[in-house]
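From the shared-data thread, chain only:
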Amino acid sequence: MNVESVQLHGLLGEALDANRRGRLSQFITGPDSPAIAIFNPVHRDHNEEGDWYGEHAGKWLVAAAKAAARSGDAALQAKVVAVADHLLSVQDDDGYLGNYVASRRFMVPQPPKPESWNGEPALRTWDIWTHSYLLLGLVEVHRCFGHDRHLDAARRIADLCWQVFCEDGIDITSVGNHHGMSASVLLDPAVDLYTLTGETRYLQLAECVLAQADANPRLALLQRALAGADPSEIATGKAYQLCWNLVGLAKLHRATGNADYARALGLQWQAIRDHHISLGGGPFGGIGHRSREVFNPAFVFDPGAYVETCSILAWLQLNRELLAITADVRHAEEIERTAYNDLLGAQAPNGEDWCYYSFANGRRIHTNYWRCCKSSGAMALEELPAVAYTADARGVAVNLLGPGEAILRLADGNDVTLRQHTAYPFDGEIRIDVLPAAATRFRIRVRIPEWAEGAMLAIAAGAPTAVAAGRYADIEREWAPGDTVALSLPMPPRVHRRTYRNIQESRAPGGAPVRQQVLHYSHVAFTRGPLVYATGLVDGYKTSEVVRLPAADDQIRVETLPPTGDEPAATLRVHFDGRPAIDFLPYYGLNGRMDRSWRITWLGLAPGPTGADADDCGQV
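Structure, as C-alpha cells:
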C-alpha cells in the first residue's frame, strides 16, 4: 500500500494554508528576491562575511515545492521552478553553488578556530551548511516536479563534496562551526542522494563525513552517542545541529543497517526526550550558557528556557526518520505533541511571522528580519502531511489525529480513502470513514495517544471495546465501502510536575559518600488531550506566580469549562489555596498569538512550612 495524497484540515490544515499563503508565497517570489540574489556573482564574488543567510534558499525550495505539489498551487510551483533554474544558472563549472568569495569557500583549507560556543571571533563558515540545504531543496524540487536538471545540479554539488572531503582530504569539521557540527550535517543530503540515485560514492561521502566527525575529539559524534553521553556533552550541545546530525545518522542506518547507528540513535533520542524537551514538545536549553541554543545539563529545568524553532524542525525530522525505521508509536506521539504546541505556538496567524525563540514562561516575540527560524518553521509545517499517514505492505498507520483525509493505493491498483471527522485536538471523539472502491482486506493501525487512558474503539456497527493508551490499535479485516472506525478519547485535565534539583556529592574524610541537596525548585503545569495550557500575565501584571496545591494530583481542583465565543477550546480553571483561581487556555493560541503577549505555562510550587522537601537528602 502507498499513500498517494494527504489533506489536513482543522488546526493543522489552517496552519499549512497560512504558511503557503504567507511565508512560502511572500518571502521569495522569484530569482530577484534578496534571499536568492545573494547567490549572484555580483554579490558572491565579494562576500567576505561568510554567514548563514544562504540557507534560506534551500529551506524555501524544500517547503515551497512540497506545498505547491500538495495543494496544486500552480503559481507557487512556477516560482519554485524559476528559482531552482536561476540557481542552476549561477552554479560554477566545478559544482559550487554557494554565496562565498573564492578564498572563503569550503574547498579552501581554513586556519584553526578558537574555542567558542558560537564560532566567534574567527571568520565563520556556513558554506557546507548552505550547500546541504540546497542539496535537499534541489532534490525535493526534482521529487515533486520530475525535472532531471535539478537532480543533476544536486549531484554536481555532491560530487564536489566527495572530491574535497574523500579525495583531497580536507576534514569536514574544519569548515564548520560548533566543532564541525554545522558542516557534518552534510550526512543527511548525502544519504538522500545515495537512496535516490544508487550511486555508491554518495554513500562513501556520507560514511566519510561520519568518520571525520567521529575522529574530531571535540565532536566524536558516534563514540559519544554510543557511550551514552548526554546531548549537552556532544560538541557544544547545540540542539538544532546535533538533531540534524542525528537525522543524517538515521538515514545512514536505513541505508546500511549498521546496528551501532541504531543503538546510538536510541540512546540520544531517549536522552533528549527524557531531559531536554519542553512540555510543548520542543528541544529547549540556553540556561546558564553563552549560547541560547544549546541543551542544558540534564538536571536543569527552567520555565524560561529557550525553544528555538529551528530545533523543532530537526526534532520533527528525527522522529520522522525513527518512525520510518521502527514504526514505534512513541515517535508519532512526539511529532503530534510538538506540532500542536511548540510548532503552532511559534507561528503567527498570518503565516509569515514566526518566533525565533519560544518560552514556556515568557513573552512571545516575532522575529522581524532574516533569522533562520522563519524558514525552519515553514519547512517544519510541511513535514506534517507526509507523517500523518504512513503505509507498509499490510496497510496504513494513522499517526496524526485531526480532521482530514488520505488517499491510499492498494497493491491491486485500487484506491482507498480514509477520512477523519473530528474536532480534535479540542475534542476526543473521532470517526474515520473507510472508503475502498470495493470490499478488500488490509490493516489499519490507529494511534492511541499515551494520555488517553480509558480510550474506546468501535468498528463498523460493533460494540465499543477498550484499547490501550500509548499504542497502535491494530485492525486487520475486510473493509467494505462505508465502514467506520469510531474512537473515543477521554480528555480530563492532567497535572504535570517538574523539579530543578541539584545534589552536591562528595566524600567525608573517612571516604564515606556525602550527598546534600543545595537547590530545589518545583513547578506545576496543566494539559488537556494533546494540548498544553497556559495563562497570560497572572492577575494582569505578574510574569510568574508561586502557588500552594495539594501534594496529590487527584486532590487538585481543575474545572473544565466549555468553549465560549470564537474560542474552540475548553478553559481549565485551576483553584488554589490562598488565592483566586486562574484560567488557562491552549498555549499555542493564547492571546490570539499576538506579538509581545505573555504566556505562562509553569507555576512555581510553594515550599513546605519547614523548608524541607520530601526527597531532600543530607538534612542537618
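The chain is about 35% helix and 20% strand.
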